[in-house]
Amino acid sequence: MGLYVVGQINPDNHLEWELQGVFDDVVKAEAICIDDNYFIGPIELNQVISVATTDWINAYYPKGELNYE
User: Do residues 29 and 23 touch, judged by C-beta distance below 8 A?
Assistant: First the structure.
């Protein structure tokens, strides 16, 4: 089952984020993304992603891509 995790990046520390919700539909997930600090990360239920820190494949910022360089 495909789910969509919505998180909000802390604008004062881009290494921190807060969970905003988990949705079963991408339209519902995108609806709560009110600015460019929100991201969506797709995930499969009952599936291990990785035991190591890694980039979240197919995660995106619906309101625009953030650049923290």
Answer: yes
Could you report the per-residue pLDDT of 29-40, keeping only the tens digit for each?
Answer: 999 999 999 999
What is the rounded CA–CA span in Å between residue 5 and residue 21?
Answer: 6
Q: Mean pLDDT across the stretch 16-39? A: 96
Q: How far is CA 51 from CA 5, 44, 60, 64, in A?
A: 18, 15, 21, 29
Residues 6+ apart with CB under 8 A from 48: none
Sheet bearing 2-10, strands edge to edge:
13-23, 2-10, 38-44
CB count in 10 Å sphere of residue 42: 15
